[in-house]
Amino acid sequence: MNDAPPQSPCINICVMHPRHGICAGCYRTLDEIACWGGMSPQERRDVIDMLPARKPLLKKQRGLSAQKTLRD
């Protein structure tokens, strides 16, 4: 097992979905984002492993509909 800490999944699209409480860019919660620097490599891997399951919670749309989706 590699003990090197995984890099942050942040892609600099930092918009929190108010209903789901996850970032629209990296799919992490505010707590996960705030604690990232202090997490062990295994804790970071655990968070990264959960991210793909969160992606479907946020519908990707364009234009005004996208803004409405993020507010919902």
The share of residues in extended strands comes to: under 5%
The main pleated sheet reads as: none
Mean pLDDT: 85
Which structural class do you get from the secondary structure elements? mainly alpha
Ranges where pLDDT stays below 50 over 5 or more residues in a row are none
- Secondary-structure element pattern, one letter each: HHH
Question: Helicity range of the residues?
Answer: 25-40%
Pfam families: DUF1289 (PF06945)
InterPro entries: DUF1289 (IPR010710)
Protein name: DUF1289 domain-containing protein
Report on the structure:
- The structure is a single chain.
- The chain has helices at 30-35, 41-54, 64-71.
- The chain is mostly helical and 72 residues long.
- It has one domain (10-63).
- The mean pLDDT is 85.
- InterPro entries: DUF1289.
- This is DUF1289 domain-containing protein.
Per-chain topology:
Blueprint: H1 30-35, H2 41-54, H3 64-71
Quick structural summary:
The protein is mainly alpha-helical and 72 residues long. The chain has helices at 30-35, 41-54, 64-71. Helix content is 39%, strand content 0%.
Notable traits:
single chain, 72 residues, mainly alpha, 3 helices, 39% helix, 0% strand, globular, DUF1289 domain-containing protein, DUF1289
